[in-house]
Amino acid sequence: DPELCKEVGIKKFKSISNRSLPSAFSGSPLGQKGLFSTRDARWSAMRNAIVSLYQPSHLASLIPTMQTYIKSSADHISSNITEDINMSILSHKLSTDIIGQAAFGVNFGLLDAENKANKDCDDQNEVTEFIKEHMYATTSLKMDLSGSFSIILGLLVPILHKPFRQILKTIPGTADRKIHQTNLKLSKRVDEIVAKRASEKSRSSKDFLSVVLNANDTDKASRQLFTPDYISALTYEHLLAGSTSTAFTISSALYLISKHPEVEKKLLEEIDRFDPHDKTLNADELHNNFPYLDQVIKEAMRIHTGSPLVARQTSQKVEIGGYILPKNTWVWIAPEVLHKDPKHFPEPNVFRPERFDPACEEEKKRHPYAFIPFGIGPRMCIGQKFSLQEIKLTLIHLYSRYIFRHSHKMESPIEFDYGVVVNFKNGVKIRAIKRVNN
Ligand code: HEM
């Protein structure tokens, strides 16, 4: 109910996590550092400290960096043009490299196979190992029966999650133990990156980690709030939040566009009209010249919604839709259920980007909260603009050079893994076809 959302959503709910599996995350480096237990006050301060990084002017300054990584991934496609490409893996590397630079100020060099001498890390193997573990950690927080038992239990009965995890993590062979050990290693590595950066005398002001450490250097209050552990947890959160869902959206868009030639045709016309081949777009051009691409991305996020659940906890007793929810009740929203509601999206399973055209009746009539891939309210995704910029730049660059077709190894119907972020179970497998004259 719109009125209720307005009234209740903002005023009476306190948000306690991001997309948001508190019990699942409490086993991750975030939870181990106590992020969720105390995070509200500190998180608001942190959001304020870093919000400038997500403002249009800073995002615009990231375009050339993003373009460099995007070009590397296109070059990778070019050298594998006769083979199947697992777009899920390639886009995960791309988005991890980009967020590595933006959040840590570190070049992970995942796309750059030749990059043996990484400037920011003494040992390239360390970086590769770190990322492998990061990828394991992001994919192992599952919500089905193949995931950790304590996580599944925590979803059903949150109070049981912690004690069960404590027991299960000591038992060899359990997913809980594997996750625990991976998280310990990840935590240690993030701590090392943070400690190294903290010891540097001059830091840039362009990445998340440096901005927070700079604030700590100059401000005593900030030092008390942002302990080294807390900074590590947040830096890791950025890596986690910034890579998987962006990668999922890029591969989902490619999967859907490849299946719909009429959408592909219209999109290519828009991209070619602007002729962005090998050109660095500026923020205004990116924002204004690709309205159909905007619709395609929204529709891809609607059909395949990356965040399965968003959570809130009531900060006081409240009545919603005739139900009385006591204080501290967990409320879970499943955005994809909203996104498939035929009331707001007629023929919900049809991929039709035009339904997001601002001139279209369906779009005009739709409730503003019917489409919430980035969550909603004061705790909605802080990286929304960052990721949309990255996704747009990637699709423009790739489609100015190639079109894509599903590999014959691509399963149909496609299968999903439900984790903290949804993922394609076996990846999006495609073949690239070089476009004439490009
Ligand atoms: C397509 C890409 C992305 C999607 C679909 C997505 C989705 C979401 C969702 C649904 C939430 C929870 C919002 C809520 O509770 O209302 C969230 C939170 C968050 N996201 Fe994203 N996200 C994406 C990309 C990013 C990127 C690139 C970053 C970092 C650069 C990022 C950083 C965060 C952070 C830090 C939070 C927690 C915010 C808070 O708790 O105040 N996300 N995201």
Automatic annotation (TrEMBL):
Pfam families found in the cross-reference section: p450 (PF00067)
Record has Chloroplast as a keyword: no
Binding, heme: 381
Listed name of the protein: Cytochrome P450
Organism: Dioscorea zingiberensis
SUPFAM superfamilies the record matches: Cytochrome P450
PANTHER family: THROMBOXANE-A SYNTHASE
Similarity field: Belongs to the cytochrome P450 family.
Cofactors demanded by this protein: heme
Keyword match Disulfide bond: no
